[in-house]
Write a structure and sequence with these properties.
Shape: elongated
Distance between the termini: 32 Å
Mean pLDDT: 81
Number of domains: 1
Structural class: alpha+beta
CATH topology: Yope Regulator, Chain: A
Largest sheet: 5 strands, antiparallel
Helix content: 40-55%
Strand order of the largest sheet: 1-2-3-5-4
Oligomer: single chain
Length: about 150
Amino acid sequence: MSTQALDALLEAVATEIGMADPKPVVSSKMIEVQGFECSFEIPESDSDALYLLFDFGVATAGRTLRLFTAMLEANLTTYAQDQAQLGIDSETGVVILIVRIPNVHDIDPSWLADTLLHYSEHGLYWRDTIFQATDEMFEAISQGDFEWIRA
């Protein structure tokens, strides 16, 4: 996908969600959805796919190992089917959800707007439930109690 085509798609998405001025989204290749920043990338090595990178926030100090356990479980049970992965930026400690959308040329702006909202809901869940979870909830993972993770 060319830069111009991506710009047109981002402008259409910004218009779809009701932004008065889509220029900031187009110029920054970033949009905020329910308080989460999402950036858009089309890497040269995978030019037929659009990548959404959601910034879910910074992992709480001292909880990174437990958070990795929850993220691994989510990657295996939830995100593998969506071509998505959770990870932590090693330099900043920010939890990032990377979503790969194949067939970038067929993306409908309305569908993409719905997809952004869908994954921002995941971000709300991670922020409100998992980042703030008690140690007992994290310990339950190793005992096989995954009911508190929304699939």
